[in-house]
Amino acid sequence: MPTQYQIAFWNLENLFDVENSPRREDKLQRAIGKDLAGWTQALLDRKVSQLGSIIRKMNGGHGPDMLGVCEVENKYVMDLLVQQLAPLGRKYAVVHHDMSDHRGIDVAFVYDATLFTFKDYFWHVVMRRTATRDILQVNFETRKGRLFVVLGNHWPSRSGGELTSGYRAIAGETIAYFHQRIQELHGENTPVLAMGDFNDEPSDSSLVDYALSSRNPSNVLNAQIYRFFNLMWVLMGQGLGTLYFENVPNLFDQFLVNKNMIRADVPIKVQPGSAEIVSFPGMVHPGRYPCPIPFGGMGNPVNTNGYSDHFPISVGVTEEG
After folding, report:
1. Cα→Cα distances 1→95, 128, 262, 319, Å
2. Where residue 288 falls among pLDDT bands split at 50, 70, 90?
3. Which residues contact 267 (CB under 8 A, 6 or more apart)?
4. How far apart are alpha carbons 223 and 225 in whole angstroms?
5. How many domains are contained in the chain?
6. Parallel, antiparallel, or unpaired for β 66-72 and 106-112?
7. Contact at 8 Å (CB) between 312 and 58?
8. pLDDT confidence tier of residue 210, bands split at 50, 70 and 90
C-alpha cells in the first residue's frame, strides 16, 4: 500500500526567544536587543499558540508529516512550538542547527518520528560578507527504508535593493552544487526536495540560472545536468503569493524537486498538482488584498491576533509499496 505524506514549509516571521534570554549569546544580544524590547514570555507564548493553531489544521486536521520552518532563533522556541502540537498525539521531533546569521535566525524541521528516521544533517554555508542563513540538509530514512533528502532554505533578504540579487545567486549556486554532490554520494536515484523562503520569484535568475530549477518537467527529466522542477510556477501564473509587499503578491516560498520525485518509475514521488498555499479563514487580511496577517515584533507593531507575514505552503508526496 502506498504511504501518503503531507509536507509543509512556513516562514514563522521572527520567532525569537524573549528579551534578554539567557540562551542568547552576548554578541547577538547586543546586535538585536533593542528590537526585542518588550518581547515577553507572554508574547512569545501567544505567538507560538497562534502558529500552532494553524499547523494543527494542516493535513485535514492531522498536522503535517514534515514541516520546514525559517526565521526561528533557537531550539527553545522550536520546542515551544512542538508543545503546541501535542493535541495531535503525534511523535514530533526537531532538527535544528544554530546558524551564524547576523540576526540570529535559523532554519529547522519538525517531523513525525514514526514516519521518518533522522539519519544525519549538514549545513552548507552561503558565502557573503555578512553572515546569512546556511542551507540545512537533512537525510531521512522513510519507514519503508528509503533515503529521502530535504534541503531547508532561507536565502538572503532583498533589503538593500538590487545589489542583494548577487547573494541569492550565490545561494542558488550553493544548492545546485550540493544537489549534485548528493547524487554523487548517495546514488543517481536519490529523491531530493528543496523547500524554503528563497526571497526571489520562481522566474528569477537565482532559481533558474543558478539553482537550475525549471517550470518544465521534461527539461528536468531529460537534462544532462542535475536540475530541479519548481512546483510553484503554476501558482505564480495564477497571480498568487505567499507574502505581499505594498499589496503586490510575491511567491518567495517554494518547493523544488529533482527528477527522482517526478519520474514515472520512482518509489517516492510528488503528487501532481498538490503544491498549494495554505490560508485558513482568520489568518487572511479581510481587506481588499488577501495578504497574511502578521504577528509583528522586532520593532514592528504587535498584533496578538496575527500569525506570520507569510502564508505556509504544502505539498503531497507518495511512497510506493
Report:
1. 28, 47, 19, 9
2. confident
3. 144, 146, 319, 320, 321
4. 5
5. 1
6. antiparallel
7. yes
8. very high
How many CA atoms, within 13 angstroms, populate the side-chain half-sphere of residue 255? 31
CATH number, domain with residue 286: 3.60.10.10
The range of the structural domain enclosing residue 251 comes to: 3-319
| Tens of pLDDT, residues 104-147 | 999 999 999 999 999 999 999 999 888 899 999 999 999 999 99
- Give mean pLDDT, residues 66-89: 98
Predicted local distance difference test score (pLDDT) of residue 159: 84
Residue 32 class from Cβ within 10 Å (0-12 exposed, 13-18 middle, 19+ buried)?
A: buried
Which pLDDT score, from 0 to 100, does residue 105 have?
96
